[in-house]
Amino acid sequence: MCDVISCEAEVFVYSLAGLQVDGGQMPETELPDNEITARTGVYQLLARLTSVPDRDIYEGAVAGTWGKELADAGKLLGFAFDFGGASVDASVSQEDFQAEFLRVFEIGNGSGPAASLYGGAYAGDRMQRLEEVVRFYEYFGLSTSAEDPRPADHLATELEFMKYLTFKEAVSSSPRLQTSYRRAQHDFLERQLSTWVPKLVEKTSSAGTWPYWEWVTATAGGFVAADANYVAGALAS
Q1: What is the model's pTM?
Q2: At how many degrees (to 10) do helices 175-188 and 155-171 cross?
Q3: Could you point out which of 59, 105, 110, 188 has its C-alpha 20 to 30 Å from the C-alpha of 174?
Q4: What is the CATH topology of the domain spanning 9-236?
């Protein structure tokens, strides 16, 4: 792990998809490359891969480059993780690619999606789950975005929140604040993502979808589990 002084840094313009910072945009921030910002980068990419796919996501899926992109983002992770990879056939159009995403994860064939990306769908009371997630966001000065409306319990939104928490840990100069943000990561992983993402992975596997989409959810689920173990270990040490 490199330290803030000696590590090559880059200017990072922070953005959130599905969430907004109350009180305005965050300023440009110089971030080092280290094991914390590696986690930020991985969560950012996973959030993109679990959102309604745009042309960039489609082209990367056809080229089969997203596994490498994730591995590059996570090259300084403090734990080993194999991101693997998957692709879709070049004969698949962008429209069909997006339609399969919507069929499996968002809309379904009339009876709801086979593998919902909404965490509340895996809870007995979705409204209660939504309220719990929103309280997490509000405590850290965030709210759902009016410009990019997306349910608070959408997987991409929750991954964006983890990106935010790791970013805040990375830019905090106080060890006490760093520990506070890491505890928040532990709590959110334990109480939210870890409780339902494994079920999403199982549902995707039985949804009869393409290997690419199975890889996306399995990678997200595997990383959430590995990161939860890493954070718990870091707090215990």
Answers
A1: 0.89
A2: 170
A3: 188
A4: TorD-like (1.10.3480)
